[in-house]
Structures
1.
Amino acid sequence: QSVMTQPRSVSGSPGQSVTISCTGTSSDVGGYDFVSWFQQHPGKAPKLMIFDVTKRPSGVPDRFSGSKSANTASLTISGLQAEDEADYYCCSYAGNYFWVFGGGTKLTVL
Amino acid sequence: QVQLVESGGDVVQPGGSLRLSCTASGFSFSSNDMNWVRQAPGKGLEWVTFITYDGKKKSYRDSVKGRFTISRDNSKNTLYLQMNSLRTEDTAVYYCAKDLRGGCCFDSWGQGTLVTVSS
């Protein structure tokens, strides 16, 4: 039940693109196409932004996209906006009804 | 719309017990698997425990196994977390989270309830 590895922080200017990586193992990210990403603003509950590696829930802008290669998943946010500034967490199913989160990444919009 | 409302958070001494509740509305609670996820102050998210829609299958992270018990009452649309032998490291905001579908992800979250374990 190890925490998946994310960069502590990333930043970008409005209109630019940023990518947040999430490195796990063959037992979680690499073993299942059940990677999800959450956005969390200070003092608020997390919000699902991406599920099943690449799918977006209704209402999430298409500026948000997900991908996966081997044991690493990525979240890309294009056309950065001020309201995208938040903490982002990856999550993966790890089998046998267990889930594991990444350590979280703070996104700063410059 | 989906609504999850947690309650029961409090300040408790190490070794004490607490029961959290999560009342659901806006969806078919009895058809959905549910989870508890926690977040220590200033820290990241941590999955805690899972229960199937019918309560027949449960799972726990190692650090809470044997101390925490997840349960549900589908007639009351309510999810519970019984926490015993609490430790200072259990201090966190506890969120209940609904599964989108088996294995996938947590598509709806409550606002959280704060549990503080301190002497």
2.
Amino acid sequence: RKEVEQDPGPFNVPEGATVAFNCTYSNSASQSFFWYRQDCRKEPKLLMSVYSSGNEDGRFTAQLNRASQYISLLIRDSKLSDSATYLCVVNGGTYKYIFGTGTRLKVLA
Amino acid sequence: IAGITQAPTSQILAAGRRMTLRCTQDMRHNAMYWYRQDLGLGLRLIHYSNTAGTTGKGEVPDGYSVSRANTDDFPLTLASAVPSQTSVYFCASSELAGVSDTQYFGPGTRLTVL
């Protein structure tokens, strides 16, 4: 089993739709969690950190479920500019950032 | 300079040649990292450094070496390139090496080894 698993997609959604991605992790001792966004042929950029209590940033909501060992990302009112690959990152110790392979989102006009 | 820069942007290299990928950051971050990204595998850590003068091995260090002579620069060297080292290489940095520290990435170097 991979340490971090994501559905590769693509998720094709119309503008204005709500879409959710999940990411599962295998190491129950993982300490911190992040969602990064990566545009085609570009570097990953931090979208948001994920906290135990859940957190929201505008149209984006991230949640952590430690009992079931997954994190989620919800995007409301999808925009064309949201089209990208979303990387789940789990940190299990110093220097030990484990990246998922990413979920590809296409928002359609 | 703002953030992290990498050079070259892309490179085609003959197998057996030596190659150094450059990485420079101007954020005065203590920790720096080198990753490779391959289709279907996600980013994998090659080497890291938590401060100038110290380096450590990541998940896939074989065939690569690094040095950290100062805070800003973290070059990655392929001593004798092989085709399996064809990949996109990203340098990253974080203020500290703590588990909750955010990593910031450079624009990447696309390397093809023939």
